[in-house]
Specification:
The chain has 188 residues and is mainly α. The chain is 69% helix and 0% strand. Helix 2 crosses helix 3 (70-99).
């Protein structure tokens, strides 16, 4: 009988894919509801990200029989953040470059209005900045998404790993069968 070892990649990948679907739904909901791309409501997408990161760590802890070290908890959450960052970055590129290129113009128009309202830059400077950004908008957005998700995920993973940490006592044996940990003392 083959003993299946727990892997942090399995729950991380599962919850990253679920987060991808959630992000796609949120993105199109914002588009159809005509919510400003620069609105602070865009940060709502981080709530499912955090929830799914916690679920990743909990599922991995359950696979380990209820015991998890700080490092294992961090690793599972960090892998989830990397997978999510890559998946959402690919979607972001496809979304802005192929599916909804009009959203780039909408975001640039909103940025122009913000720059003009501040009054720090001349019209020429605003035009130059926006023309350069418009050429590489999908690439800039894609790279930004990866870095934001990975850095934010690392921070949340560091905090939540401390919450989920539950190390084995010295009286428990380390068993390859994570479903049934056995104590060392036969009297127990």
């Amino acid at each position: 009988m083959e003993i299946k070892k727990a892997s942090p990649s399995q729950p991380a990948l599962k919850w990253a894919l679920i987060n991808l679907v959630t992000s796609i739904v949120i993105t199109y909901a914002f588009q159809f509801l005509d919510i400003d791309p620069n609105s602070s409501l865009k940060y709502l997408s981080f709530l499912p990200f955090i929830a799914f990161l916690l679920l990743t760590q909990k599922e991995y802890k359950d696979q380990l029989g209820g015991y998890i070290t700080y490092g294992e908890g961090f690793l599972s959450g960090f892998l989830y953040a990397i997978f999510t960052g890559v998946f959402v970055a690919v979607f972001t590129y496809v979304y802005y470059a192929i599916l909804s290129p009009e959203m780039v113009n909408k975001a640039l128009t909103a940025s122009r209005a913000q720059m003009e309202a501040k009054g720090n830059l001349s019209q020429d400077q605003i035009d130059n900045a926006l023309s350069m950004v418009s050429k590489y908008f999908a690439v800039i957005a894609t790279v930004s998404v990866v870095f934001i998700y990975v850095i934010f995920g690392a921070i949340v993973s560091l905090i939540s790993a401390a919450v989920f940490k539950n190390e084995r006592s010295p009286f428990d044996t380390v068993s390859d069968n994570y479903e049934d940990p056995k104590p060392i003392d036969p009297a127990v």
